[in-house]
Write a structure and sequence with these properties.
The protein is α+β, with helices and mostly antiparallel strands. It has helices spanning 10-19, 59-64, 80-88, 96-99, and strands at 2-3, 21-27, 30-36, 39-44, 47-55, 69-75, 104-105, 114-115, 119-131, 151-163. Helix content is 17%, strand content 39%. The strands form two sheets. Strands 1, 2, 3, 4, 5, 6, 9 and 10 form an eight-stranded antiparallel β-sheet that branches. The two termini are 20 Å apart.
Length: 173
């Protein structure tokens, strides 16, 4: 594991997140992973922050609401089939870790584990959350919510960012 500054990999990470990354959340004994394709990295309140969006209709929502943290694992190897599965199946009905042969690995600064894959990992503590207000959403984006299942946006302070493979950053092309 090699500590890295998120700024040094942010462009590559965002390119990969558009293809998919793993969001892992844990509250007590409840642990789930889902695929995210929307996120942002930057500075808010003078701190390094990652924002992730979770719909209330998702199983993950019930867990992240009881948690104070999350991890994001951005793979540097092809995991398209696992990302597709974790993005289309619910943790209510299936053990995604088992079905996708995903191993977890203890995080170093939070209790929620990371996915044990080569890549970039973010350990985040939730510092703020906000439910989307549909009346504030521009009309041209409302088609993204045909079921009116709007997201809650979680702001996580990145308390640790690291690569689990020396060449992982280069693999995020």
């Amino acid at each position: 594991m090699q500590h890295i500054e998120f700024e040094s990999v942010s462009e590559k990470v965002i390119r990969q997140i558009k293809k998919g990354a793993f969001l892992t959340v844990q509250a007590g004994d409840d642990l789930n992973v889902m695929t995210i394709g929307w996120a942002s990295l930057g500075y808010i309140w003078g701190r390094p922050i990652m924002t992730v969006l979770v719909r209330k209709s998702r199983y993950t929502f019930g867990i992240i609401e009881r948690s104070s943290e999350f991890s994001v694992s951005v793979p540097s190897v092809d995991m398209s089939s696992q990302l597709a599965f974790c993005g289309s199946e619910s943790g209510r009905n299936v053990d995604k870790f088992k079905e996708c042969s995903l191993e977890i690995f203890p995080a170093s600064r939070i209790k929620t584990p990371i996915i044990n894959v080569p890549g970039i990992h973010f350990e985040c503590k939730i510092v703020y959350k906000s439910e989307m207000d549909p009346s504030a959403l521009v009309e041209s984006y409302k088609h993204l919510y045909p079921m009116k299942d709007y997201h809650t946006i979680y702001y996580g302070e990145m308390v640790h960012t690291y690569s689990t493979e020396g060449e992982a950053e280069e693999g995020l092309n």
